[in-house]
Amino acid sequence: MSPENLAQEAAKYRWYHTLDLGNGVVTRGMFDHRDAIEKHMLPTDLAGMRCLDVGTMDGFWAFEMERRGADEVLAADLADPDELDWPPRWKVKVEPTLDETKKARFELARRALGSSVNRVERSVYRLDPEDLGQFDLIFCGDLLVHLKDPITAMERMFSVCRGSTIVCNPIKRFPLARGRAIAEFDGIDEFQWWLLSEAAMERMMLAVGYLRVRVGDQFELPGTAGGKWRGVRGVMTGDVS
Q1: Mean pLDDT per 10-residue segment, the chain (241 residues)
Q2: 209: left (phi > 0), else alpha (psi -120 to 50), else beta?
Q3: Helix axes 102-113, 3-10, angle to 10 degrees
Q4: In angstroms, rounded to a whole number, what is the distance separating the alpha carbons of residues 71 and 108?
Q5: Model confidence pTM above 0.90
Q6: Which residues sit opposite 185 in a β-bridge?
Q7: Nearest Cα to 131, choosing from 165, 161, 156, 160?
Q8: Structural contact between residues 113 and 106, judged by C-beta atoms closer than 8 angstroms
């Protein structure tokens, strides 16, 4: 595909991720992770690893893991927007095209990048080692905040992990919590079910079976149209051994 045709194809879509597709073509995504990659605790060298990107959307993190040398990368996401585990009030408020066209966007990016990442249509709640096998590294970004049941999601990620799982999520700071695991529930005024504290994320990972959790630095996520979700993120890595 020529740079001109690639630019024309990319311009047909509204993008979730800002992606550099090469030949001077960069998508204008809702979120731009490029200057924050190193804050996400992703190992520099993933050679020999089998990796999973949960809730991949346009595939930014799946392609990044491949770029870092992973032997195999699977990118998991839901096929049907109606299956999204969002607060019902927000399903009628949020523009649906981001999820209706994500498969096409992913495929366009995959072809433009010459990528071998394999996209599988799968909910986080249905991650199963019987058919997916297990992974050396799992990445889950900005997903738990929108789930009714983040604990089951964490359990399912643990079930397919044989190495480490990186979880990045918007967090809320509770000044009077003094390190206790606290979360804020909404679903009415905010596009979220649970906005977790950093302590809640850490203890949740330990509760489902991760033996050790390494907590990274909190950071602000650069974005272009992310609204206040460009705010503070917490990131941590859970190890199974």
Answers
A1: 93 94 93 92 98 97 98 94 80 72 96 98 96 98 94 98 97 81 88 91 97 96 56 94 94
A2: left
A3: 160
A4: 21
A5: yes
A6: 194
A7: 160
A8: no
